[in-house]
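We now fix the convention by which a protein and its fold are recorded. Here is one such record, which you should read through line by line:

>
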Amino acid sequence: MKISNKYTVEGLIFISYVLFAMAWVGGTASMQQVMNEMKIDSLASASFISGAVTLAKILGTFVSAWVAIKVGIKYAFFIAGLLISIGVFTPLVNNYELLLICRFLMGLGGAFMVVYFNPIVMKFFSVNERATINGFNAVAFNVGTAIIMWTMADINLMTGSWKTSLILFSLGSLVLSIIWLFVEYNSVNDAEQSNETSTSLPVEHYTYIQGFKDKFNWVYALGYSGLLALYICLFTFYPKAGISQSKWVIGFGILGTFAGIIYSKRFVKRIPVIRFSGLVIPLMVIGMSFSSNIMLQTFFAMVLGFFAFFPVTALVSIPHELPKMTIQRMTVIFSLFYSISYSFATIVLWGFGKLVDMNNGDFTASFLLICIVSWTLFIGSFFLPETQQNS
């Protein structure tokens, strides 16, 4: 049996990342139970798990292009799925070091997978279809996160326990990885399109060194990095500051992504939607961070969630629309995009926590930091190329 239908292929990669999000966020939500079973109550130990996650994201996204070049995109995606399925051991291990390794490898798989979305989309879909498909892929993690945040208790009730739920999520990833092997990737040359609706692409050997020298990659990654730092802060530090509107950011983020897909189909210019959203985002962050009214905070969170994801379809589409783009160059671009932005976000998160400690638990200075950082998308929009000249 061979899988060659491009929509079936898209379904596989979309559901694979939804399941990763469910296993990842579900594991985080159940971490207290995991730590209790291992009789570990140290906050330092818990912070090491977060550190392993961050390292996996930075390292994984950076080396993902190298792995893809060595084994090809098809088998690189398969490896990503296998690494994600290692999450099956999260509720089973009784050793802290093994838990750390398990979460690291799982995060590594997720980091690989998010980079491979774009070369796979480029392989199977025509230029006119990619914006829509990229938009769907961009919302996959939010869909998985939303399922866990809103229904984890119900899922646990259906399966009988949180352990069974986590095991089933990871087994689902394993099954999809095996099914992926039946995809007819046509990997004779990863720089050529395989479907009849697309044209052949030029062959080009694009290395990490070339990627680091390319100004576009730095503008692209750093423009997104402030938004990424903000997103992580919303779920890491804001609840500790008494602002717990995270679920509204997720929910309206899904709506914003779908609105962005529709908008990008009707209005093909990329920069205007990125710039406008980049202007709205920091204003909403300021309102949510410094308002003392819960209703207003919720409103700001809803608008923030919508506009944080509204420009994602346009943003992710830009590399696909650059002249003479190849699959190898695409893979390197997104490898650097995520590794650079995660590295920047990690520094911001460290600074956020450090400022809280320096000010004896007061979040004011830290909120100011994240408000400043959240302007990067708006600033970056003035340096990104407009790939569509028709309105």
Notes: The radius of gyration is 20 Å. The CA atoms of residues 5 and 14 lie 14 Å apart. DSSP finds 16 helices and no strands in the chain.
